[in-house]
Amino acid sequence: MSPAIEAAGLVKRYGETTALAGVDLTVPPGAVYGLLGPNGAGKTTAVRILSTLLRPDSGQARVGGFDVQRQAEQVRRLIGLTGQFAAVDEALTGYENLLLVARLLELPARRAGQRATELLERFGLAEAGGRLVKTYSGGMRRRLDVAASLVGTPSVLFLDEPTTGLDPRSRGDVWDLVRGLVADGTTVLLTTQYLEEADQVSHGICVLDHGRVVETGTPAQLKAKVGGQTVTARPADRGRLADVAAIVADVTGATPAGDRDGSLVSAALPAGTSARTVLAALAGRLETAGIEVAEMGVRLASLDEVFLALTGQLATAEETR
Amino acid sequence: MSPVRAARHSITLAWRNLVKFRHTPDQLLDIVLMPIVFVLMFVFLFGNAVSGDWRTYLQFVIPGIAVQALMFATIGSALALNTDLRNGIFDRFRSLPIARSAPLVGHILGDSVKYVLSIVLVFAFGAVLGFRTHGSLTAILSAAGLMLAFAFATSWIATLIGVIARAPETVQALSLVLVFPLTFGSNIFVPTGKLPGWLQTWVKVNPVTQLSDAVRALLLDAPPGRAVAWSLLWTAGIVAVFAPLAVNAYRRWA
User: Which of A66, A154, A289, B157 pairs as cysteine with A71 (C-beta 3.0–4.6 A)?
Assistant: First the structure.
């Protein structure tokens, strides 16, 4: 099957600033693809080009097989867009916002009203539907915004930082929604600064930094590629932390690190090391030393670790969250 | 994009503006108050000075004030559009398969309610003070048609300003620089013959003068001369120049 989204060599400059410095992207149909990167990485610019809002300085992009520049109208028939800032009209009610989009998509009057009501119900806004949007909370606005982008049942949906500024529960709702859409066969391209988010919902991830793709792959591939595996151990008695760290260093041959609250020891497994051998050795040494553990194991590196390894900087997500 | 579809999109977007007026009628306050303030101010401040007595002046000035109120109403439209463009909703419009000009045409169509309202209010308030028309029904309707057509034309200028201005303050500044010479540099308030010679040159070509003359002639049953033809010509000319400029600016705006 041909890709739902494909881009080649996208470049966009704003004066001196290069927002995109040659981005290639391929998203298979029916997948959730995460564009991951810190602020200013070029995520929004990429989405605006792919959704026909912005012309690239060079490069091509096709959505659903249509060229975003020369066949913009056909592309617009296929896509839904939820931008970074809620694209809803505050001076209208929730219902009127959805009705407006439905009428612009040329649904007949009755069908348009039904579609608006359907979507309000699906997004838990049935009761608020008759209220002006300016009275809505941030989470409600975001849900209405996503609902508005779904009026035309798009086959490709762009979500630009869909969970920015939402509380954890609303974020979980958005993730469930994305999973539901994909189950219905929609292709979703979402941008995020949250590594956890990309990991949670994406089939594929493209890591952007300073307008360049620094890595692409599945979450598992990315982790395996750069971070490999990490061995962790948490002593039951915090007093034995130093002893555990020494044993872990000995077994893995790597320098262990503590976590934020300083109760977990972790160390990267050197390439080619067998996880089970290391774990067995670690368990043996802890047994000999008589140290009980609350937690011990081997896991794939987290996306935070991936990002650090790929871009040489910490993801800004932790700071801005 | 077929014109029928483009028209349908524009009408839907005009509906959006109308619904907003219904939800928040206070945004019509300036449209309601401005004509009343203009009429009171000009009739009683300048009436005696210009025409000898304010009742005679009332007959002369009301049609002109209606034109002036329209011009100020278009500034309001430029401001509203400028604020609206900053709202994320225009990104949504631009991502939908609709005519590129529809959001702008919709805005202008929606605001035509304001234009009708301001004309009606000026004449209604004028009538309370004693303004009387001597024109036939056809003449009155023609005058209204001329004024609305001109308002439609100038709102393309307002739209251009609304699209290119970076901030609402810029809209205000640009609009006033445009509207003041057009309205005050016309014969709305003072007959052309009483103005200094150098000013008359400008006043005579000013489209606002032509339109005011045409409306006066139609409503007061006087010979219109070439004023009606000139008004129509100006209206067509302004649309021909500024509608494409505005749509183009909007396309490039991102």
Answer: A66
Of A54, A76, A92, the CB nearest to B96: A76
pLDDT at residue B172 is higher than 60? yes
Tell me the C-alpha distance between B44 and A291, whole Å.
Answer: 98
CA–CA dist A119, A111 (Å, integer): 12
Q: Quick check: A92 and B16 in contact, CB under 8 A?
A: yes
- Decide if A73 and B1 are in contact by the 8 Å CB cutoff: yes
Amino acid at A2: S
Q: pLDDT tens across B135-162, in order?
A: 889 999 999 999 999 999 999 999 999 9
Q: How many domains does chain A have?
A: 2
Q: What is the ipTM of this complex?
A: 0.85
Residue showing tokens 């553990």: A293
The residues with which A232 forms a beta bridge, in sequence order, are A266, A297
Ranges under pLDDT 70 in chain A: 1, 225-228, 259-261, 303-306, 308-309, 311-321
Q: Which domain holds residue A191?
A: 5-218
Question: What would the two tokens of residue A229 be?
Answer: 């595996």
Q: In this structure, are A197 and A247 located in the same domain?
A: no
Residue A218, both tokens: 């599945």
- Selected for mutation to probe chain B from A96, A104, A135, A151 (highest B CB count within 10 Å) is A104
